[in-house]
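Quick entry, no commentary yet.
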Amino acid sequence: MNKDTNTKRRKIITVTVIITLILIAVYGLFKVNILKKQIEDEKRITSDMSKKVAEYDELLQIDSLLVKGEYDAAINAYNSRWSDNDIKEASGVQLRIDIAKKLSKLRNGEQLSEVSLMEQDSLDSIQNARLSRIPKEIKQYDSLNFVLEKVKVQLASTKRQLQRKSFGEYITFTNKKGSQFHYVGEVKKNKANGYGIALLNTGSRYEGEWRDNQRHGQGNFYWIDGEHYSGSYLNDQRNGKGTYFWPNGEKYIGQWKDDKRNGVGVFYGKDDEVVTQGVWKDDKLVEEDKK
C-alpha cells in the first residue's frame, strides 16, 4: 500500500514539475517575444530619430541662407527638398518660405504702403495715430536696411528657439481683428499656448507668451517700421506695465490698458531726457507731473 502511495506521489510530482517547466518555457517565450518587439520598436524609433535629426540638420543649413540674405536661394532649396504641402505646413517649412518671400519683397522695395499697413494691422492705435505725423528724417532713419537687419536678428532668434525639443509646432490662425498669424511655438489643443513666435501678414512680429491664440503674459511686438513694444499683455491687448519704443529714440514707460496708455507713465525724448510725465488716459496726458 505504501509502495503504491509513493508511486502516485512521484507521478504527481513528476507531472507537476513537467507542467511547471512547460509554463516557465511558455512564459519565457512570451517574454522573449515581448523583448524582441521592444527591441524592434527601439530600432524603429532610433531610425526615425536619425532621419529627423538628418532632416533638421538639412533644414538648418537652408536656414543659414536666410540669415545670409540669400532669400531666393532659400525658397528654391525649401521647395526642392520639401515638395509636399502638408509636410511643409507640419514641419514649419511653409513659415520659412513665407518669411523668405516677404524679405525678398522688402529688399526689392515692395514694402506695404502706409494705407495697407494701417488697414491690415489695426493692433496699435499709437502707430496709426502717428503715421501721418512721422517726419521724413525718421522714415529715412528707419530705412530698408534697418528693417532687414532687424528681421535677420529675428530669424536667428527663431532658429535658436526651434532647436528646443518642446518648440517648433507650426499653426496659422486669424485673430478677432482679422490679422493672420503664422505661429511657431508651443501648442496645446491646436492653439498657441505657452511661448511662441508669430509673423503677421503685415510683416509685424510678436514673440512671447500666448493663451488660446491670444497674446497673454510677457512679450515683445515689433512693427515693420521699427516701432517696438515690450511688456505685459492681457487677452491680446497691451495691459499692465510696458515700454513702447519709436525708431527715432523716443519711448514711453508706464501703465497700459486696452492697448492704450492708461495710468502713470513717462515719455522720454531721443536723448533719454524726460519730455513729460504724469497720468494718461486713452493715450492722452490728462494730469501732468511737473517735477
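second:
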Amino acid sequence: MPPLPDRPAPLQRWLPAWLFGCLLAGWLMLAAASAHAQGVELAALQVQRQDGALNLDFNARVNLPRAVEEAVQRGVPIYFVAQAQLLRNRWYWRDERVVRVSRSWRLAYQPLTNSWRVGLLGGLNQTFPTLAEALSLASRSSDWKLADLKDLDADKDYYLQFSYRLDTSQLPGPMQFGLGGQGDWAVGVSSTLKVELGTP
C-alpha cells in the first residue's frame, strides 16, 4: 500500500489565506484613501426657512483627479450637477417625494487668456485666473429654494437627499464611450439630512 501524502500542518494551511487577507485589506485602505483625496468633501449642508420658503445651502470641496484635470486643460469642458429631493416619511408606504430640484455648472479652460470660465447652465459665466477659484464657484450654492413653506405640513417628518457629482453624461459622446470603468471620473458625494419644520 503506497504511503499517504503528508498533510500540511495547520499553520501551512491558513497562512496563505491570512497573508492574502492582509494584502487585500491594505490595498482597499489605499484605494479608499486615494478616492477621498481625489473626490469631493461636503463641507456644509443645511436647510433653512427664509421669506416663506425652505432653502438649501451647500458647500463642497472638489479635488479633481489628474486625468480629469488634464482633460480640462486640453479644452474639454466638464459639468457638475447638484441634485436635492425633499421626501416625507410614511410608515404605511414608501416615502413620498415632495420636490426634486437640480443645478448644473459648466467649467472650461480658456487657453488664449490662460483663465477658467464657470457658470450655471442657462446663467451668467464668470472668469477666474485659477482652477481652484473656478471650482469654488462651481461647488457651492446658497438660498437655493426647495419649496414654499405653505405647501409643507409642519406636523409631518421630512428629510433631504442630496448629491453633488461630476456629470460625465455631458461629456462628448466618443469620450463617454472611452471612459468605461475608469474610477478617476467617478467624482461625487451624497448625504441625507433630517429637515425640521418647527418654529425657529
